[in-house]
Amino acid sequence: MDFLLALSRPPLVLGVDPRPELHGPEPLSHLRRYALEVFEALAPKLAAVKFQLAFFEALGPEGFGLLCELASAARVMGLPVIFDGKRGDIGSTAEAYARAYLLRFPGSALTVNPYLGLDTLTPFFQAARESQGAVFVLVKTSNPGSGFLQDLLVEGRPLYLRLVEALARKGEGYREGEWSRVGMVVGATYPEVVLTVREKAPHAPFLLPGVGAQGGRPLKGPGLLNTASRALFYPGGRPDLEGALQAAEDFHRALVE
Ligand SMILES: O=c1ccn([C@@H]2O[C@H](COP(=O)(O)O)[C@@H](O)[C@H]2O)c(=O)[nH]1
Q1: How far is the CA of 54 from the centre of ligand 1 (A)?
Q2: Which structural domain, as residue segments, surrounds residue 167?
Q3: Could you give the ipTM of this predicted complex?
Q4: In terms of CB atoms within 10 Å, which end of the chain has fewer, N or C?
């Protein structure tokens, strides 16, 4: 499956940030069952499933096993997968991260951190092209303090915008039809920034985290993948299949009507 197919699906991404303490006496088996039920029930309303690697890593080796199992199950259900790991390192290590999440899981996407420089992102972009995947580069993150570095003025323009311009240029080399395999993360908590970034990067898929629990509202537009984790996976703060379906229907209505 080519990740870019996610852009022709409904524009909502289910975030999976598992909290075993909410899953009773046998947390991992309950979590596995619950996640599979949620994937199946919500699949027709989703562009993709985003797995937050930190929450799986925090569960130790069993957590990594569960991540692989759930990622495979999502793909079998026809759902593209995003690994939210915000990886980034010198080139040789970036290559290893790219092998781990893009080449071993063809057709998936990975979030990456640009702080080390654009040269360190090339292994991710090349792996995404080879595996029909995608890369989402952190540009303007959803957190309240993101401006501390990202909004710094550099030669009169915010740093995030300079990054966007450079990525948009680079992304042209990884474009297939309308969309590039070089995507960007822009917080749904900054809707005005989403518009500014879109003007500079018309062919980049955008991952918009922060919908729901962080106060961001769903945003409509081509190539915008609205992402909610707690609000969809744990509506009301706990596992609730009916509630998850209702929340997905509400977001879906806001996005497609
Ligand atoms: O700018 C960013 C980048 C990534 N995230 C991740 O998205 C989810 C958000 O969870 P919610 O429960 O929907 O708030 C989480 O995995 C973050 O690590 C982000 O929030 N902002």
Answers
A1: 11
A2: 3-256
A3: 0.99
A4: C
